[in-house]
Design goal:
six-stranded parallel β-sheet, about 40% helix, globular
Length: about 350
């Protein structure tokens, strides 16, 4: 059964539940809680309200196990609820580091609540062992997003440019920039520095997607729309959906920002990425992903440099063959196990 919550029902963020319906996937339970402001206090209230809704839904459907992907506060509130209702948790994408955001600690917290772990690299498996998790319940299956990208239908570039009404005579950059929720730089300065670094670069067209609902997320959206109105060489697409997004990954010349997809899926699309600031700091990077401080001149210079043709090794550290089928087989085996043990902290030898 599928429970959909978070910002899927937010008009501001594109009513993305329609993408789930469009993929002919039934949403069994809808958790529609509005988040009209994005201060830390607003987010805490959202977590509180969502826990109450999740209690109601989970007591109704009584799942044998739940699957949670990632590190968002929306997922964290769900994990807390499952833990207190004694529902087993399978967590995807544990063991990773993103030191520039609250998500980092949230991810580790979900891992400590979870019973089974599906990681994307052996280094992440070692980190979960370091956190006291049982080796026999950690499985290196690779990133589902990479497999989804590789299996998706993608247009040839000339068709892609025509379909989305994009210029043929300019380089195309795909941009997603989320707030750095653990940073020495204030939120207003973060988006100001980032957008100013994109100005005055000739022969480039920017495609923006909305950031997420982190602290000051709505302020970022406002500044993004303001930038787009005065810039003729840009377009905003609130939410693309996976198939459209994968087409952009494949056909753009450059990805700029601090989205995890620029690190996890983009190398398999053979597209160069600029990872700005500290939000994703700590994640394993392919050679096609270039780190850059949140400094206007650094970002500006790196964009110009990378728009020139370069020979790049696109080997993806997050990819493993048959990610989805291996995850499902393991999960079914674990669901059917009768010898369910109480979760314990496993010490490593010091």
């Amino acid at each position: 059964q599928l429970i959909a919550g978070g910002s899927h029902f937010s008009k501001k963020f594109g009513l993305t539940y329609k993408e789930i319906v469009g993929d002919k996937i039934k949403i069994d339970q809808k958790i529609n809680i509005s988040l009209n402001q994005t201060s830390n206090e607003n987010i805490l209230n959202y977590i509180s309200k969502s826990i109450k809704q999740y209690i109601r839904v989970l007591k109704k459907i009584k799942p044998s196990i739940v699957i949670i992907l990632g590190d968002r506060y929306e997922a964290f509130s769900f994990a807390i609820t499952c833990y207190y209702l004694n529902i087993r948790i399978a967590h995807i994408h544990g063991g990773e580091l993103t030191t520039g955001s609250f998500d980092d600690n949230i991810r580790h917290s979900i891992s400590k609540l979870a019973n089974y772990h599906f990681v994307t690299n052996k280094i992440y498996k070692k980190r979960l062992v370091q956190l006291g998790e049982n080796k026999s319940n950690i499985f290196n299956t690779g990133a589902l997003g990479v497999e989804n990208y590789l299996e998706s239908k993608k247009d040839k570039k000339i068709i892609f440019l025509k379909k989305y009404n994009l210029p043929h005579n300019k380089k195309i950059a795909l941009i997603t920039f989320h707030p750095e929720t653990k940073s020495k730089i204030g939120y207003k300065n973060q988006i100001k520095i980032f957008l100013s670094s994109l100005e005055n670069i000739k022969n480039i067209y920017y495609i923006f997607t909305y950031n997420n609902m982190d602290t000051s997320g709505l302020y970022f959206v406002y500044q993004l729309e303001k930038f787009n109105k005065k810039n003729k060489n840009s377009k905003i697409i609130k939410s693309m959906g996976s198939n459209v997004y994968f087409n952009f990954l494949k056909n753009v010349d450059l990805i700029i920002g601090n989205s995890s997809s620029a690190i996890i899926e983009a190398p398999s699309a053979k597209t160069i990425s600029i990872n700005v600031g500290t939000r994703q700091e700590g994640r394993l990077l392919a050679n096609s992903v270039f780190d850059c401080d949140l400094v206007k001149d650094q970002i500006n210079r790196l964009i110009k440099k990378l728009l020139k043709n370069r020979k790049i090794n696109y080997k993806n550290p997050h990819y493993k063959k048959n990610s989805r089928s291996n995850l499902i087989k393991t999960l079914i085996k674990k669901i059917n196990e009768n010898n369910i043990q109480i979760k314990k902290f496993n010490d490593i030898k010091f």
